[in-house]
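Researcher: Sequence recovery benchmark, item below. Answer with residues only.
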């Protein structure tokens, strides 16, 4: 679907077009347009609807239900591809009251929001209903500027018949994955691998998670980001030792993946070619019961921590909001267990259950919703709900972090863990190739990214 330029980011029609691109039902697109058009001709600001900027398509459905249930306040959703990078709004743009997105907690955006502590002190919301670690993520200068909406975690999937080999019912450490993977490996008579448990070079997102668990400490710093170089080196050495333990090299790992693991992750176990597959919760719980049959999962954790994915979705009230009372009503309504249950049920009725997982694409920030509502929809969660005390949230990161992570950090990690068998004749040991060119540093990659990005 081609949009006229005037529709692309600034107009009330942008979300409907985005929904079409994401494969959401045309009925919902029409409902989004109806919500927008109903209020586009309102006169005085007193009667105008509150404006929600977001890049999350499901909020069109949320706003529609809010409007149905409220006669004294209405909401219109405006799609923004990157809300955090769209702040502050231009003078001729529709001015937002609420912004719902990832990457709102950074130096360039936080000054546009107001503290929401009064929502708790006034009894409109209860802190005990939220995961405390997620609430802390929204703190700035000890004040609650952002409210968490949803989050995701990282897991490994494996066959249920192998469950007795995994010692913990909830977590598995990097060492645990490494140990079981190496024990699972089998070779053919010609020395080639018949099966391979899991290899570090198979998944850049897995390496990224491992670097975070090892203390990489990625954080917003000036235009780009800061990191702990020693932690990255330690991660690379750990992954190299993993490959060496299996008497393998990176080329062999990648050839095995290309030959045997080209199908969707849930199918990779059917021929017993691998033990683990790394997967995000937003993908894991989109599997059907049939696809998940015979499988189970564990959260990847270390030292009592489960790392929350970087892209936590939060909600902020704009300083320039012209409809603060309506915005407050929306927040009070949205952060209610019964309402979020209705929102999830609505996804079923609108055929959106196959588009995204849970509330706004992830676990809810409300403890009771995950405990009482999610397992009814996502049966596998009955086995292993996330435990709030173990959640570990990311540092402040730039709105450009997704691009930096994809173009700089992950390629660096993939290059850093490469191992090649020694070329010397009669060499028994496997080691990193001694004469290969040094890999490009993170600084060099950032410079290349800047040239590309600008």
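Model:
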């Amino acid at each position: 679907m081609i949009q006229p330029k005037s529709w692309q980011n600034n107009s009330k029609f942008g979300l409907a077009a985005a929904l079409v691109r994401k494969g959401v039902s045309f009925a919902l697109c029409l409902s989004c347009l109806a919500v927008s058009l109903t209020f586009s001709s309102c006169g005085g600001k007193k009667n105008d609807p509150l404006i929600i900027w977001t890049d999350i398509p499901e909020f069109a459905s949320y706003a529609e239900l809010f409007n149905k249930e409220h006669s004294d306040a209405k909401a219109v959703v405006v799609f923004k591809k990157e809300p955090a990078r769209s702040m502050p709004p231009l003078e001729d743009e529709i001015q937002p009251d609420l912004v719902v997105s990832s990457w709102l907690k950074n130096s360039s955006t936080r000054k546009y929001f107001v503290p929401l502590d009064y929502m708790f002190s006034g009894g409109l919301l209860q802190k005990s209903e939220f995961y405390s670690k997620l609430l802390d993520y929204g703190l700035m200068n000890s004040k609650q500027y952002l409210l968490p909406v949803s989050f995701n975690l990282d897991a490994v999937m494996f066959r249920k018949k192998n469950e007795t080999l995994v010692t913990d019912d909830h977590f598995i450490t990097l060492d645990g994955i490494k140990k079981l993977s190496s024990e699972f490996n089998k070779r053919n008579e010609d020395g080639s691998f018949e099966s391979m448990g899991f290899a570090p070079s198979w998944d850049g997102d897995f390496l990224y998670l491992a670097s975070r668990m090892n203390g990489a400490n990625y954080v917003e710093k000036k235009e780009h980001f800061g990191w702990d170089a020693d932690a990255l080196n330690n991660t690379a050495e750990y992954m190299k030792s993993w490959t060496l333990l299996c008497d393998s090299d990176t080329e062999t790992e990648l050839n095995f993946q290309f030959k045997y693991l080209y199908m969707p992750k849930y199918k990779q176990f059917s021929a017993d070619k691998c033990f683990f597959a790394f997967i995000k919760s937003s993908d894991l719980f989109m599997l059907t019961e049939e696809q998940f049959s015979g499988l189970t999962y564990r959260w990847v954790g270390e030292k009592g921590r489960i790392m929350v994915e970087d892209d936590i979705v939060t909600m902020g009230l704009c300083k320039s909001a012209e409809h603060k009372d309506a915005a407050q009503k929306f927040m009070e309504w949205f952060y209610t267990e019964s309402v979020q249950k209705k929102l999830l049920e609505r996804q079923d009725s609108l055929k959106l259950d196959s588009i995204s997982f849970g509330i706004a694409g992830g676990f809810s920030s409300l403890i009771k919703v995950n405990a009482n509502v999610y397992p009814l929809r996502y049966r596998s969660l009955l086995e292993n709900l996330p435990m709030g005390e173990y959640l570990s949230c990311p540092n402040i990161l730039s709105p450009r972090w997704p691009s930096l992570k994809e173009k700089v950090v992950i390629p660096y990690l993939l290059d850093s863990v490469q191992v090649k068998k020694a070329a010397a004749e009669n060499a028994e040991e496997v080691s990193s190739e001694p004469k290969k060119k040094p890999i490009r540093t993170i600084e060099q990659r950032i410079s290349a990214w800047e040239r590309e990005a600008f």
